[in-house]
Sequence to fold (350 residues):
Amino acid sequence: MYSRKFTEAPEQIINNGKACFGTFDGVSSKIDINGMRAPYAGLPLPSFLTQLKIKSRLAYVFSNEEYIGMTEFFDYKIFGIIELIFWNKTTGKKLVYHTFTSPRISLISKKTSEGISASYKKSRYIKVFWGRNHQHLAMKFNVKGDSARPSAKGSFFSPLNSSSHTDSLFVNPSPISSRCNATWVCTMNVQGNISLNNEASEPKPGLALLMSSRGYYKQRNKSTIAWGIGTVKNQEIIFQLGNSNLDSTDPDKYNSNILVVNGEKTALPSVVITHPFGYDKNWIIQDTENMVDLTFTPISRNERILNVIAFRSYTTKIYGTFEGVLLTAEGEKIILKNFPGIINKNNVRM
Fold:
């Protein structure tokens, strides 16, 4: 049976120009991959040029009894993109709010002990922040509506000593060892609520996942990530499955796929995510180790196309349900049926 062990996280991801590759329990003090020696074909390019190729991404995915959604930050150096999207689980109706930021030193914090990623615009206040020393991680937003959508505000808060709290760090070749991709995944219990047009709303319990990653991007980048968050027979289940054209040449050894059941982690093998009948029909997610065998049925889809000079991105976010089987490291079968989740597919040209 497939097995990939979690080892102790290094204090620094890059040491003496080389990355500490592996799957780690806990997280380094910073998600920082600057300083790799000659990351492009061994050419001794100036560090300021190679650092321009490093892009960062942060996603906060949440789910409670009433809503499922996510906040996503992209830092492309020349500008940033922030998007908030959530769906009402009962009606399937989606609400989407996004904004752009001008160049700044760091839209997404490298520090894992404490940090803030935020848009402070009056019409698009969106903030994800964490302070592990203060034992909290939270997401808040207050966004203004228009003729097509209502104003909305919400907050989700988690103490880091919650029963489903885990920290994991994945440092993977991208796709070869001269470049790397580092991903911090934090899972947690949350109390949160969303209010539309200032209607009264009480906090409800739920689950959430924070993903923060940095990598050396190509001119064209493609990625697909599936997140599932919910409960099955009183078990709190969170998983992340994905693939991209930045994946390692040995994806079963190095990937960022993880399953968390009641706070117990399992590192999963690489998967193939396909949609043979189109985006609106069943998606198939499988591995070659018989640990992942899922289908995803879409309920609601949102697409965003952005063109800025030579930059182009095409992003699809889909809310739906998973059915199938996941296998833990102990061999326990997790059977999913009508299990809520999101698939996020990105195509970016820079």
Q: What stands out?
A: The helical segments are 47-52. The radius of gyration is 19 Å. The first helix runs from residue 47 to 52.
